[in-house]
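Methods — Computational structure assignment.
A single polypeptide chain was analysed. Its primary sequence is given first, followed by the predicted tertiary structure written as C-alpha cells.
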Amino acid sequence: MNKLLLLTIPLLLFITTACDSATSPGEKASASAALLYTNINNNELATLLEDKVTLVDIRRPEEWKQTGVVSGSNMITLFTSRGGVNPDFVSELQKVSSPDKPVILICRTGNRTRAASTMLVKQLEYQKVYNVTRGIKGWIADKREVTRL
C-alpha cells in the first residue's frame, strides 16, 4: 500500500482530533496524552529560523501569492483546493526534511498545520515538529516581514 493512501484516511481523523494532541512550550503534557508536536508563537518561529530549522508552508500557490511567505519557506502544498491530500506532498517534504531533523509547519491560521503536524509525527515518524499557531496571518499581523511572490 503506498504512503499516500496510508496518509489520507488517518489524516481525516487527525483533522478532527489534532487540537487535543499538542501542547504549547511551557505547557505540560498530561500523563495520559503523549506530546506529539509543539505549538510555537512568532518569537519562537523567528528563533528557530535563526537556528536554520526547516520551515514548510503547506498552503496552496494562490495563498502564497495572496499574502507572501516567510523568507526561507519551503512551499509544499498539503491539501488540494478540494480538501484532498496532494499526492506529491510526502516526496517533496522528504527532499527538504528528514524525520530525524526538526521541521516547522505554517499555514494561513494554524488549523491545517495542527492536522499536518500530527500526521508527520504519527504516520511519517518525524521526531520534532513545530506548529506555528497563528499561521502567516499572525506573522503579518505582528508586522513581520514576508517575501512576495
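Note: The CA atoms of residues 14 and 93 lie 19 Å apart.
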